[in-house]
Amino acid sequence: MYKEKVNRVVLVGTGAVGCSYAYSLINQGVAEELVLIDVNEAKSEGEAMDLNHGMPFAPSPIKVWSGSYKDCASADLVVITAGLAQKPGETRLDLVEKNTKIFKQIVKNIMETNFNGIFLVATNPVDILTYVTYKESGLPKGRVIGSGTVLDSARLRFALGEYFKVDTRNVHAAIIGEHGDTELPVWSHASIGIEQLETVLARKKDVKKEFLEDIFVSVRDAAYQIIERKGATYYGIGMSLVRITKAILNNENSILTVSAYLNGEYGQKDVYIGVPAVINRSGIREVVEIELNVKEKEQFNHSVSVLKETMKPVI
Fold this sequence. Notes:
Layout: E1 8-12, H1 16-28, E2 33-37, H2 41-52, E3 63-66, E4 77-80, H3 96-111, E5 118-121, H4 126-137, E6 144-146, H5 150-164, E7 171-172, E8 175-176, E9 184-185, E10 191-192, E11 195-196, H6 197-203, H7 210-220, H8 222-230, H9 235-249, E12 254-263, E13 269-280, E14 283-287, H10 294-311
Parallel strand pairs: 1-2, 1-4, 2-3, 4-5, 5-6
Antiparallel strand pairs: 7-10, 8-9, 10-11, 12-13, 13-14
Helix pairs in contact: 1-9, 3-4, 5-7
């Protein structure tokens, strides 16, 4: 049966993160159309050419081309990875003023096409730039999503899987809060397979609880470690963005720790921050409000306060 409507994804920014996303998207056969936009048009043209040459080996055909903002008019999803990258020694929050200016112009250009789809933001500081996108676009809060702590949670799952010698896909654990230095692990809800982490630790007498803090610190500081070694992080976030894209386009109702707008959940209002949320074809269906212990609540509230303070000069 002929299907008239196809899933079109527009990617704004063909740097290392954007291209890692595009490459993963094609290899997983997630969308049917992929449009690349960049201020450097020659770069986006070259990337489209290169990606198209691998199409004979893709799991399903995807039409890829270098386009312009007018292609956003009929897009289902616009993914923004454009902006200045984090430099060695620079925090994600240091980027806020520079990238806010860039984002306001990008979102204005997109909305002038009457775009009525979903925004997915990856550029740092992602929580603040997702908020900027929400305010500038005027779209409903559920249709503006940040990559949040999806990658941080994946890093935590990987580290725990390595430690316990268990497939990382069977590790269920989450990082919430700011995608940055004030993020926190939700140990109270972590599990290995279907067994609570607390139960696993009680059973394994040779495992010291202190290792949890070491694992968290390595996860929190992973970006700094990678940037120091290779200049930037992009494969992990590229694959994380594809995971969110799949949840949206396939109407999965999957629970992912994205940057979502809080309107009373967790006792917080008017802020985008990493929390578990149900993702489907409409965007964020709902924020999942899990019960945090006293320490986790304090850490989460601190994370929100840091974000709000940093946002003041630009919002």
